[in-house]
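Our preliminary data section would be incomplete without showing what the modeling component actually yields. Below, a chain of 223 amino acids is followed by its predicted structure, encoded as tokens that our downstream tools consume directly.
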Amino acid sequence: MERTVYLGRHLMLRSSYLKKILECGVGGITRTIRIGIVKPKFREVFIHSGGKVVAKAEIVRTIYKRVRDLTDDDARLDGFANRRELIRELERIYGRIRPTTPVTILELRILEYLDLSDEDVNAKLSPIEIARLALYYNVPLSEEEKKILRQLTETGSLRKLALKLYGTIEKRWIIRKVVRKALKLLQELQGQSSKLSNLDERNPAESEKTLVHNTDRTMQSKM
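Predicted structure:
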């Protein structure tokens, strides 16, 4: 059975492809080819590369093919000299692939260039969103800390949870401390591996709740 992944608002590109994005220009069209069946959930996405959010783009077309159907034109549009070079690069990234392996070609129009760190974006997540992500990616927290995060997602409020657990809102600092630790672990996980590179691609129902690019509230202001 072929696996489908769902692409949310964040698209990760290797830093080696950053030059192609920058040379494209606002309004220009570029492509990225992914192994597997990728289904975008949103038309507009934020492109991450080299530890930063470098651009906002619109997905103008999604094309599904098999590896055997990739052409030299596909390769050139993705910045490679020919089909053989493209497949060699795909195998370097993903490991051995078969002729029948599905691929997704995402055609992107650059809307604007940005210069935001991944930490800046993560810091704009609400405490509830951080709790959901930390539980979803099973970051290394104690069972008691995970219990607090689970209860936070259920109550939806630091104040309500503090009252429930401690009988006073004055002790919500305990919950804040756990949330900050969870955020730090998420950022470390993002820096160490590609586990968060498809941050919102694994569960479409969860992604709508957790992957919010909220530009008018920071984590501190909500806590």
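Residues 4-117 form a domain with the Archaeosine Trna-guanine Transglycosylase; Chain: A, domain 4 fold (CATH 2.30.130.30). The chain is about 45% helix and 25% strand. Preliminary results of this kind motivate Aim 1 of the renewal.
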